[in-house]
Design a protein that fits this description.
alpha/beta; 22 helices; 20-stranded parallel beta sheet; 20 strands; about 30% helix
Length: about 675
């Protein structure tokens, strides 16, 4: 035993080290491993299977050649973002494409920004064994024949089994003819994602869905945006759903959403909770869909139009789809009658582990309790736009599921504001890991007013009374927090008044702002108070999304603030947080499609002294980007116009190609402390 004390980790056989290194997934950790010694460097490179390539496209001659084992390659993040990777007119382009193949000979999964089809004509022949491809394009489609974008991919990659087009702008008419032209490739595809995330009005018509599914009979996972509105030509109804199940009977994941579901997640139905129109989906069709897809493990139907009386149809899921573990329903009504003589409706799906209910008008506290009793395995629960559930019902729901429930999202529910939501989650406070709530402070403001009246002329401050009312409780395992906040509201009540100030392991937070600043003359306070998040000692990652905030980008009318002042309002105090990664979406002026970093925003971001990664989802002027060089630890910065339509040329975008190169040169010349 004494001899074992002298064994060094470096003395382990290479095979064991190889296995150990292969389990390391964190990129920065792997980079540190590779710097220990030459032996570890070679082992780390030989075990790295996934790589997202960064750098500037002008430096392709510096392409690393030591990652021969990489099978998953991401080329969508090269700088300048969205710029064509190679110039097809140049004779060097073919040589560079071949250089990629020599540097990464084992690639079977590729993510690439294909601004034009010529990119795929260059790269597809280099990796004929590609099995998974994700195409990205936020720029407008060129005037080319239908399906031309996909022809080089289908022509050269005969083993293709997975295709992701969720972030690729194209016409809905493009894909069906391309699949029809290459039937063998279409038959080999088992995963197809055609969710449209770039438009709120476009969706695949019924005949297009049927053409796609008939060409791809071996689909296992199918995700699509479609049209359920019966007033539109090509809407999806009974016949389409039954034919889809008949065309692809082996589906394990079916995800169908209406195009309007992405337009405004906060939009409420009418006063009673119903949409204005009913979908043309019958109970018999829902039952037939379930019966026709016995291998289903995940089902998402976000219809955005009323589907009434669905309880009896959903009961079929339990018997006909025994593998079903995840279910999301949008605008489905009467899904569960509540605590009746016996469990009914969705409460009979006892194997569910994830459940999302959106805009169910008659979902009540009794329904929630029945679901918690009938679905004891739930680990994730999402509820959105359900107006009849209250704190009492949700508290009972979480109490029954306190052994399993770790991921909860509550949004747009009339009787569940921030305070009520957190009180309702008290039974699982010690085990919940991920949480989303709406920062609606009505009850907090009402309580503050009552306490002000009670305090009167007494020496006790209302704030202290408020702290006693919402005593601090520890959320011991909460590591991810997501918040929705209306434009102009403050963040400070989150940590000072509602009892969410003690989260010792919280390391990531996402905040989304929504609202029209043009309806407000001026921010009500001088700052949004991001500095209140200092109470979270491990907070290092933040996504700050002001993209839903609309205002005046250029000249605001007299008495109103432009977007630069709103950015100052939101970002003031961010320098007090010890963030290492930040994704920031600037507010926008929809009239001119303008999303750009302002002078106050650049100055405030430059105060984040611990940032390593900064991704700005918009544009910026070069001189404002130079402010960011004041951040001593900053290593990775990029402007991403990942919204439609992205700027088509340098004359529209503030940050031009040469500007980007100059900024990156200045960034790379600095000495990084670590």
């Amino acid at each position: 035993m004494a001899a074992l004390n002298h064994v060094h980790f470096h003395d382990l056989p290479d095979l064991i080290l190889f296995k150990i290194f292969s389990f390391v997934t964190d990129t920065r950790t792997r980079n540190s491993i590779s710097l220990v010694c030459l032996k570890w460097h070679l082992l780390e490179r030989s075990t790295r299977t996934s790589l997202a390539l960064r750098g500037n496209i002008r430096d392709l001659f510096l392409l690393p050649t030591c990652f021969q084992a990489v099978t998953n390659l991401d080329l969508s993040l090269l700088s300048p973002w969205g710029h064509p990777l190679l110039d097809y007119s140049s004779t060097d382009s073919i040589l560079f494409a071949q250089l990629f193949r020599q540097a990464f000979p084992s690639v079977v999964s590729l993510t690439i920004y294909a601004r034009n089809p010529l990119i795929l004509y260059l790269f597809a022949p280099q990796w004929p064994n590609l099995r998974h491809v994700k195409l990205i394009r936020w720029h407008q489609r060129l005037s080319i024949p239908l399906g031309f974008d996909f022809l080089p991919l289908f022509e050269h990659c005969l083993s293709l089994s997975s295709l992701d087009l969720s972030h690729f702008y194209c016409w809905t008419e493009d894909l069906p003819p391309a699949l029809k032209t290459y039937p063998k490739v279409a038959a080999s595809i088992s995963y197809l994602n055609i969710l449209i995330t770039y438009s709120y009005t476009e969706g695949y018509k019924s005949h297009e869905l049927l053409a796609i599914t008939s060409a791809c009979p071996n689909l296992r996972q199918f995700l699509a945006t479609c049209l359920f509105d019966h007033r539109l030509v090509g809407f999806v109804g009974d016949e389409t759903l039954l034919s889809l199940a008949s065309n692809c009977p082996r589906l394990s994941l079916l995800h169908l959403v209406d195009a309007t579901s992405l337009s405004n997640a906060r939009a409420n139905p009418d006063g009673e909770g119903y949409a204005t129109e009913d979908a043309r989906i019958s109970h018999a069709t829902l039952a037939g869909l379930c019966a026709g897809l016995p291998l289903l493990e995940e089902l998402i139907l976000d219809v955005c139009h009323n589907v009434r009386g669905t309880g009896s149809a959903l009961e079929v899921l339990h018997s006909k789809c025994p593998r079903l573990k995840s279910l999301k329903l949008g605008h489905f009504h009467e899904i569960c009658r509540g605590l009746d003589s016996q469990l009914n409706g969705i409460a009979l799906c006892s194997r569910l582990e994830s459940l999302s209910i959106k805009n169910s008008a008659d979902l009540t506290d009794s329904s929630l309790i029945a679901i918690s009793l009938g679905c004891p395995r739930l680990t994730k629960f999402v509820v959105h736009g359900c107006k009849r559930i209250t704190e009492i019902g949700f508290r009972k729901f979480s109490s029954i599921l306190k052994r399993t429930l770790i991921d909860v999202k509550i949004s747009c529910c009339e009787h569940l504001n921030a305070v009520c939501s957190l009180r309702a989650l008290e039974p699982i406070r010690g085990q919940i890991q991920q949480l989303h709530i709406d920062c609606v402070w009505k009850s907090v403001q009402r309580l503050e007013g009552d306490l002000n009246q009670i305090a009167g002329n007494k020496s006790i401050q209302p704030e202290k009374r408020l702290d006693n009312k919402f005593s601090s409780r520890t959320w011991a395992k909460l590591h991810y927090l997501s918040l929705w906040i209306s434009a102009g509201e403050l963040l400070s009540p989150l940590t000072s008044s509602v009892g969410l100030n003690d989260c010792p392991v919280l390391d990531e937070i996402q905040i989304r702002f929504e609202g029209d600043c043009r309806q407000q003359s001026w921010p009500s306070m001088h700052a949004f108070e991001l500095s209140s998040l200092e109470c979270y000692p491990r907070l290092s990652k933040m996504k700050l999304d002001c993209g839903g905030t609309i205002g005046y980008a250029l000249t605001a009318p007299y008495g109103y603030a432009d977007l630069s002042l709103w950015e100052r309002f939101y970002l003031k105090g961010i320098g007090n947080l010890n963030l290492t990664e930040l994704d920031y979406w600037p507010p926008q002026d929809t009239e001119i499609n303008h999303r750009a970093l302002s002078l106050p925003a650049a100055g405030l971001l430059a105060q984040c002294g611990t940032l390593r990664k900064l991704f700005i989802h918009g544009t910026a002027n070069e001189h404002l980007m130079m402010f960011l060089l004041e951040i001593p630890t900053l290593r990775d910065v990029q402007l991403r116009e990942d919204y439609y339509p992205a700027s088509e040329n340098d004359f529209i975008s503030e940050m031009r190609v040469r500007s980007c190169c100059r900024f990156e040169d200045a960034l790379n010349r600095r000495k990084i402390p670590d």
